[in-house]
Amino acid sequence: MVQAKRLDEVKEYYFSSKLREVRALEAAGKPIINLGIGSPDLPPPPQVISKLNEALMDPGAHQYQPYKGTADFRNAIRDFYKNHYHVSLDPETEIIPLMGSKEGITHISMAFLNKGDQVLIPNPGYPTYSSVTKLVEAEAVYYNLSAKGNWLPDLEELAKKDLSKVKLMWVNYPHMPTGASANDKFFADLVAFAKKWQILIINDNPYSFILNDHPESILKTEDCKDVVLELNSLSKSFNMAGWRIGMLCGSEKNINTILKVKTNMDSGMFYPLQAGAAEALRLDKKWFTVQNEIYKQRKEKVLELAEALNCTPEKDQQGMFVWAKVPEGETSEGFVDHLLHTHDIFTAPGFIFGSQGEGYIRFSLCTNEENISEAIKRVKK
């Protein structure tokens, strides 16, 4: 069979292919230290595991669940947004649970984009924004981010372009891969930009609690919901990446549009997963304090590793990565391959996040201090 034309411009995800190479090296006996992937190695909260196990015994646990999620889970999302972001949401109309926020990227794109519509995508940014845009046969229009601009879009410069075909704009703060943050003023300016040009803004917000004392949501911006959606996830904040649980929040009209897609794509999330997720969202701030102390210690070690490699980290980074400039004259891919084959250390090359990522690498904090210390020893030999 001949593949669909929509796949002609979509490549295999970099980590999918690169990790095959890493696994082959491990199978050959190489002691690879993986600092490339943002998959938390720490356990979920024990209360969450207990709630999951308890929910397995519920008489209705193995039946189909509501397309919009259980009322308890949606109420937990409402309370989470109120307690941590100071955002009020209606759990009946302004929230959809997701099977991971990656699912949400696809659903949003399918719900709003027609062939030929344009989508503003950050460069550097999460590669899935581009691949899904191409899958739905829309056109990716990249806006450049740079260290000079604090990795924020220049909205005045964007406004000089022809935006007549632009329907969506992806933003992601705290930003992956750079760790840059956005403040209330930027979000207010972004909402004004969206209203002026009739563009739907989607903020992808899974990193707001990691190494960050002041989590922010774009939904806190006044009178924003008609032009804003926000994706969020339990994967990073609660060490539940494999559970595939996220959420999408926004206006009733936009949520209902996306539900037309979602209700045709699945038949509801497994009840025990929702029960466990609701338990996680009801934990107090002490959970984040303990997690961040661990990440703080790891980050100090990774910064030491970056220094040993003559890499220059960006300042004031949030999230579970360290974004650093490679030494002068090096390429990101060449530097990563050198680390892998010379020191048995795997990191992520910046070019995979877009052309503006060239010259940088991304270190993950998702491994223990012992492994990072071993990486430092290997480099310093």
UniProtKB/TrEMBL annotation:
The EC code for this enzyme is: 2.6.1.-
Q: Name one GO molecular function term.
A: transaminase activity
> Does Disulfide bond appear among the keywords?
no
- UniProtKB keywords: Aminotransferase, Transferase
* Domain SANT per the UniProt entry, residue ranges: 1-22
* Cofactor dependence: pyridoxal 5'-phosphate
The record, for Pfam families, names:
Aminotran_1_2 (PF00155)
Entry annotated with the keyword Zinc-finger:
no
Q: What family is this?
A: Belongs to the class-I pyridoxal-phosphate-dependent aminotransferase family.
Protein known as: Aminotransferase
In its UniProt entry, the species of origin is given as Autumnicola lenta
The root-end lineage is: Bacteria, Pseudomonadati, Bacteroidota, Flavobacteriia, Flavobacteriales
